[in-house]
Amino acid sequence: MKNITAVAGRDTFINCRVIGYPYYSIKWYKDLLLLPDNHRQVVFENGTLKLMDVQKGMDEGEYLCSVLIQPQLSISQSVHVTVKVPPLIQPFEFPPASIGQLLYIPCVVSSGDMPIRITWRKDGQVILSGSGVTIESKEFMSSLQISSVSLKHNGNYTCIASNDAATVSRERQLIVRVPPRFVVQPNNQDGIYGKAGVLNCSVDGYPPPKVVWKHAKGSGNPQQYHPVPLTGRIQILPNSSLLIRHVLEEDIGYYLCQASNGVGTDISKSMFLTVKIPAMITSHPNTTIAIKGQAKELNCTARGERPIIIRWEKGDTVIDPDRNVRYAIATKDNGDEVISTLKLKPADRGDSVFFSCHAINSYGEDRGLIQLTVQEPPDPPELEIREVKARSMNLRWTQRFDGNSIITGFDIEYKNKSDSWDFKQSTRNISPTINQANIVDLHPASVYSIRMYSFNKIGRSEPSKELTISTEEAAPDGPPMDVTLQPVTSQSIQVTWKAPKKELQNGVIRGYQIGYRENSPGSNGQYSIVEMKATGDSEVYTLDNLKKFAQYGVVVQAFNRAGTGPSSSEINATTLEDVPSQPPENVRALSITSDVAVISWSEPPRSTLNGVLKGYRVVFWSLYTDGEWGEMQNITTARERAELRGMEKFTNYSVQVLAYTQAGDGVRSNVLHIQTKEDIPGPPAGIKAVPSSASSVVVSWLPPTKPNGVIRKYTIFCSSPGSGQPAPSEYETSPEQLFYRIAHLNRGQQYMLWVAAVTSAGRGNISEKVTIEPAGKAPAKIISFGGTVTTPWMKDVCLPCNSVGEPAPAVKWTKDSDDSAIPVTVDGHRQIQANGTLILRSVKAEDSGYYTCTATNTWGFDTIIVNLLVQVPPDQPRLTVSKTSASSITLAWIPGDNGGSSIRGFVLQYSVDNSEEWKDVFITSTERSFKLESLKCGTWYKVKLAAKNSVGAGRISEIIEAKTHGREPSFNKDQHLFTHINSTHARLNLQGWNSGGCPVLAIVLEYRPKGTWVWQSLRANYSSEIFLMELREATWYELRMKACNSAGCGNETMQFATLDYDGSTIPPIKSAQGEGDDVKKLFTIACPVILATLGVALLVVVRKKRKEKRLKRLRDAKSLAEMLISKNNRSFDTPVKGPPQGPRLHIDIPRVQLLIEDKEGIKQIGDDKATIPVTDTEFNQAVNPQSFCTGVSLHHPALIQNTGPLIDMSDIRPGTNPVSRKSVKSAHSTRNRYSSQWTLTKCQASTPARTLTSDWRTVGSQHGITVTESDSYSASLSQDTDKGRNSMVSTESASSTYEELARAYEHAKLEEQLQHAKFEITECFISDSSSDQMTMGTNENADSMTSMSTPSEPGICRFTASPPKPLDSDRGKSVAVPIPHRANKSDYCNLPLYMKSETFFRKPDLHDPCPVVPPREASVRNLARAYHTQARHLTLDPSSKASTVPHGNAATTTLPQRTPAMPGSASAAAAAAPAAPPSTEPTTAPSAEPRLPPHTKMGGSRDSLLEMSTSGIGRSQKQGAGAYSKSYTLV
Fold it and tell me: DSSP label at 259?
């Protein structure tokens, strides 16, 4: 531990730090004594020792710190404390000193450790030598010596003593006293009367002397001085001088300046003050009055030191009588004063100014102001019209000049414009404090003249300028007349009335307000107001959306621009009855027997009857196990209970109850389901018995048509009439088994068999009895039954064909197709089980038809026919809007085809136009209209509808849009918005807002002072007045209003100005021309330029990106086309004989799909039949395989019906054929709603492919023959264009086709026949989608067609890609001529060239019209040629003979030498020869090579195909030629 030095008298701390743990105690010792041993010592727990008020002798020494670290072990350390004593200075003082005295001051240290250092300081600074101060220091003392004291020695002196312990100091002040003396002595001086004067006197000394001024009045020797009173006018300055702020005459005399400070004797000095008088105006009138035209004198008196000059001024102009004879000046002396007089001869209005007289001498000048007021009669007031109303007007005037006399009153005179002022009316003695007045009791719409006078005590003014005003219209004083009410519907009343009497209209009637209120108990009694414009003397208005069967009171008021007149007397009317809006309550059903049920209910709430209750109707229908509904029945009763009799046994029924009034049936109750009780079953629906061996037979049966319960078992009866047994044998089977083998019978003996079903109620009626005899040789027999099988689509269906016979028969299934039967092929969709059952998986509409099962063995065969009916979702309804109102939309619809199952209801969906939140409404199957209520007023709605049957929901109708009545609010400019404006408030009347037929929800007002940025907002109700408060006075404001209702918002802007503080108006704001205008002009010019530049730049970027995308698609298309050629076989949907021939190609246009394929043909079998596939055998019949390539298009037209769409793709996918249903029921005979058009080609000894063309076809229209130089493609409607579009790429050919289609569309849309068609062309695509992908049928895909646009009339709308007109005859080479026909089995053509194998690609030759290209290039080049090469459209009369058509210099045009069979043609098929060059005569027979008739019209791109199709048509139609074309089909 380090030694410590402590300062005596202070506290000291000694620390004993211990490092380590644990330790038990810390103790301090001094001289072996344990501390503390006195009150000045403290030991803290942490080992610190505190010594307080340290003493040198007692506390100095060794200190020991001992730490006990173990019970018997301690450690210690010592520290030595040394105590130092600080110095102590004895007190000393400075005695009072005077200048020149000697001064000695000692500073003695009485205690402290040596050595001690003593120093002196003056005012904190070290005392320097040469300052007259000497310092002598000894061991413990130091003295300060001043040999001659002066003022500079004044200050604070400090003695400082220090040693090793501390430094101490003691400070005292030395004050040196000096007697007073004059620095500046007073001298005699002059003072000017009224001005400030200073009597100089300045002294110094220490302490600072005190100065006293004394005054002795009079100019003689001063006798006695008196102290000068120090007031605000007389003050002593800091330098001891005397200040007199305004010298007066009484200040003349002697002044004595005396100073003293207690040192030495006082000093003093006297002086004399003389006062000089400047020129002064002593008397003049401040104000005086003169009468205009009379003389007037003005007097002015002055005094002061002479000489005095007096000058007169008028305003700022000196009056010179010599120059203005109307003025004269006279001056005279009066003792010590001078009087000057100014004469005015006479006084004039211009003399109403300030006159001044100026008095001037050597010591100053003075001026006296005289205000002269010349009084006269006032000027006439300036009159203005503040406001004109119907019967009053508000005037405001401004009194410009009052004649210098207080206005005592005003007079107002007014008269009719046509009268003289002798017939005036007056308002007199108007108070002069008023500057505006209201003139009342005027007549509306009259013209008045107004003038005004003002008065003062001098007289009356001249009349003011005459004003002319016209009073406004007034609110009508009479109500509308002859008000009548006529109920129209259950929610509307028609109000009729006539205008008020002419003399009470008070202006032009602008419209009427109709107030109506419900007068039934519980209503609030408040009127609802609607407004309409006036149309004439008689008016009609219909009140809508009223309560049903409720009494209403109606009043009518007329209004014009001025306001609304009195209302008519209230008259009452009751709305018509309506159907009840709620069903009966507490509906219950109870089954009593197998054919009787009891239904009970309670009355609906009275408030929902909407009329007088006439009775109740119970509606019920049966629900069969196959999902079909029975016939809907109903009974009517006035009671709240009904008994249903004659119901089918053990059948589920749906029951609904409704109440009805005079207006009709109300809302039905929720469907209640009930099942009748079981009963004995009916007889089995059929029975068969066949021999299966020499001792056994098999009997089979059908379940009862009416089982009347759950079949528990079947009982089979067998009796032999010749056996002598009285009772038949009985056999039992389970309810699932519908056949039974009876063995152990006798050969050659006849047996009678019959069957009965058994339920829990007992055994039912027996079937027919059949007779059978066992046989050794059992021919094939089918024990299953034929008939009709109905099933929903997408289900698996089993068609049983169980057979017996010896040997076991072979079973074969076929499906009828027109006049032939096609064997059923087993694949993933069809399966034939070992027992002969045919299973069809996920059946579609095309699976409907007649299926024949044939069982054959060596002894015979047997067949059954099953008619399969596949039920599909119903067709889309045709939805229309029949009526709209402000809150409702009434819809009507015509259902489409029911899909083979009765429609169970409709789902109506609607939403606001700009929203996708659809709301659903479920509607019963019997409804054909529906009213959407509680809609927003003036709002567009989207609506769509779908029907539902047992299969599911059908396709949704087209979305239609409808708008409820009403529009956004608008402001009527004729209505006054501001009813009152002052300097800080404005009152607005919002009745000028026209609601637009929809209630105004809110009105928002924003206003701001013109030229500022911040808007203040305010929200108001439609019917309320509103105040704008805390406005700035005399300020123009901008106001904008926004009124909103459910239909939208209307805006209105205007400006208004507050009045000035005195109620006056402010002038309009003029637009200031300044630097801002240049900026605005520059901004106005620059904005359009910048926007145009940005638009051009954006267009360039978009076009560049489109070009890049198109080039990429072209590259992808080339690769795709090469890939398609390299592909081999592909599976197809419709089975035909023979292997697949090659790939197929989809060209997909949105809403249209072209299908190029190589194997399917379709025959037209009539307007009510679908198309069927044909075999390759039929396909190749009567085809010359060497020299021609013709195309045949086969169409299946859509069924013409006004209740559904033209095309239903719900069951069709590209690559599949819709197949007809031969329906047993007549209801299904007209259900076909499909349309397809297929074109097949076969190319032999190839003819070059040219171009893909298209034409128009409308169902039911006349058709001609289109001769086209082209390959032939089949077209089918695209089902899922959105999915296809994602996987499509474009080709040059497709792009070219798009351009051709676009050009053709421009021509086609001009045709009159297309005025109802809808078109949309976007782009062509090529896809390599597989048949499996394209034929997957789901409801999802079906729904994708719901947005497809359809023509408003039946038919298929198409357009033709017509090429330009040919320029020379060379283009007539190798023209394929498809001949119109009704497609027989032999009328087909081969595939296009590029679809064949490499062996068909040869070098081009003039005599070979089908040039060859390399395989990889074949597809692309032929596609390009197919789309780009120009084609000719010719119309041909099929019955005409061969002829030639001259074209240019060409002698002939060679046509294909192939004529398919037609009705009426010479032969069914003919041989064909290669096409000849243009200059070669045809070598084939005329019948085999038809030529164009002379009247044939050749068309190019500008020729309408419709025109071409009508020339030469009549005879072809008579022969029954089917519609034929190469085309795209757009629906």
Answer: E
